[in-house]
Amino acid sequence: MVSLWGSKKTDDEQDGEESTTPRGSQEGSRPPPSRREYRRREDEADERTRLLPANPRPPHSDGYLDPDDPAVSPYNLWTVRFLRYFTVLFLVITFLWWVLLLVSIFVSPPGLHTRGSGFFDFSYTTLTLGNLLVAVLFFVTPSKGMRISTAVQAVLLLIDLILIVAVARIRAEESWPGIASIVWATLIAAWCLMVDRVVAWGKKEEEERLTGRPETRRTLREWVAVLIATIIIIVYAVIVVLMTATLILRARDATLGFEGSRIRVDGDKYEVHLACMGNVTYDSDGNRNPTLLLEAGEGPAEYDFEHFAYNAFQNGTIDRYCYWDRPGYGWSDNAPSPHSAGMSADALSEALAIEGEEGPWVLVSAGYGSVVSRIFSARHVRNIAGIMLVDPLHEDLLHRIGSPGRGFLLWGWGVISPLGIQRIIGALFMGRTREDRVYGRSAYQGGKFIKAQLQENLVADSLSKNEVTSARTIQSPDVPLVVISSGISNRRDSEWERKQKDLTTLTNNLISWDVVNKAPHEVWKTYDGRAIMEKRLAEILKEGYKAVAVGEDA
Question: What superkingdom does the record give (predicted)?
Fold first, then answer.
């Protein structure tokens, strides 16, 4: 081979000379590496490998390195090295933001609360984290397939950004954390696209400089790396497609009108939906007649439960009724975490006060909503004319909805909720409407609903249980009480039946305890259930009128 000094020597002669030459004998200079030393290198070059000397001794007489030599690497370029450093830096920043968003789902840091579920910004950040991990792990194996898939991601993320910013309702729900997350995701997708292109260019440049031509072959290891990276990026692109479709549905749902209004509560942190039907009426003595106040169970009030009150209003059983959506249900925003039943009762009290609704109230509640209703009753003792509990949840059974297993499942469903697979299929093939998604049969699939359920789960057996236990202690004993239970629930669960009986002792003025034999947990969904509820409602209103008159006289 031709040495730098112009003489021809064999490889063995070169190795022999280098082995016998005393260290430092050439005035401190070190001879260039031989071909054998090049081949002894087992580790591939990375961003920490020393750059090649300006004039390395080539292992071939034609002046070029072997294409398989590890020294032939895009890391020889400072541009490529800097891109790697910045990619790692962005990865660290994204991971810290991801951890913060994860924590905020369970405990909202000051200023980081979003009025929406918080799952969208978490999903966008998870996607960004995945893109950066792929960019770091497969940094020196760029491919055209990866660039095309990443470009598709970047375009779709830009569309998502436009949707979030353009639709006022989505913009309000996502707030600045959501907007920041989608902006960051879009920029990082563009960054990864640029990095892959620059690395491909640097690889080609170094191959031409050191081997005389760009390498068109790939090793099996490189092909496997390219295949894995491309598949991952394609999966990411599909995820963005689904998230874009879900955002389009959310934009469509935002156009659905509603009765009543949204009221800002809790220091203007979020809005709750409150609606009232009918006019305020007075008895012969000038006392204000009670207003029915609905508290739904495990779903939005508008789905089935409010229909019962509307029918009672239509046939003249009641003159007026109000209903609301707890935070995260129907048209209400999600509240900051943690959020307990007592906090929901306080939000309802604030919304009623802002709207000028004074009561007195006959409280009608079901399931978990009965916990909120009982706390509300204890905090407005002088303004409660009656209580009707429909298959209510007992405080001793709150551990059922507060189990860790249920909480983990809710969190998992929340994380994948931005994909909206069920909602997209329902809209395309099953005829699901805006009403179904906002407050109807498909409402449980939305991120806000799942977040509300998760919040109830997290504090059900701690904060909420303490609040409702205290409420029972200070509950007025003279309030008229009606308990209506599901026969199916009682037969299926003996403990549930015992706790239903215990709830009949909440006050000393029990009007009736009815067990509707063939009714499910949602008692109002059967004819017999609705008939019993309306009958008992008339009786409790009659008692409520008396209680109001006595209170006014006192």
Answer: Eukaryota
